[in-house]
Fold this protein.
Amino acid sequence: MTLLEKFNNDGFLVIENFYTPEQCDAVMQRGEELAAGYNFDGHPSVFQTNEQTRTSDDYFMNSGGNISFFFEKDAFDENGKLKNDLFHSLNKVGHALHDLDPVFDAFSRSPQLKELSTELNLNNHVIIQSMLILKHAKIGGVVDVHQDAAFLYTEPHSCIGLWFALEDATIENGCMWAKPGGHQTSLRSWFRKKETGGTEMHIFDPEPLSTEDMIPMEVKKGACIVLHGLLPHYSLPNTSGKSRQAYAIHTIDRHAKYPEENWLSRDMSTLEGFN
């Protein structure tokens, strides 16, 4: 079975040893350097996975073409002060690392990624979003079950995600869970802008996404997990003493319709693929 056949069958691929430990370390080091240069002005944008209930602020809505920093929801005490140092209070950094930083650009458009994109027939896909996901020890929060296509909606559906383990991902530190073949379902919702401002979760299908028969994707540092946009997946909180940093990029077909209502605004003509 080819990689493409396996991906089409399961809705995901797990490729161990895709990147070297040294390449992963370089990305994590660059993430810390970027965070060290972040001028936190006391008005944080808190990332919550339940996007239906969040109040989307301008900082979040304008992050598509920037390198922006998002805090864990429990990072602040009752007085609004950080409980920890800034870096270990962050949930993620996004969403244009791949376009604006040379270290992340090289990682996102490596020769092996170019080869993989060819094997998976992603020659028309462009990278629209990237995220450094920190999932710190003891405080890394839950990521609710979701479909990536709900946040990067195209007609027809074309979203493909690539998730890279910068550190070992285990059940204890909050690895991803998914069901083989789970992508063979409908898109349940669309996270989009409202005409009156802010965002909403538009519901296509009220049936909840099931976590039944999902399996843990425990992988070693350097692994690549490819995710179909319709594949429901989630991760649990990191209650362990080991962090679980990861880097993710999301791609869409350049020829698919990308509605203006999508929360993430990018000039589609400027987006590039893996070349």
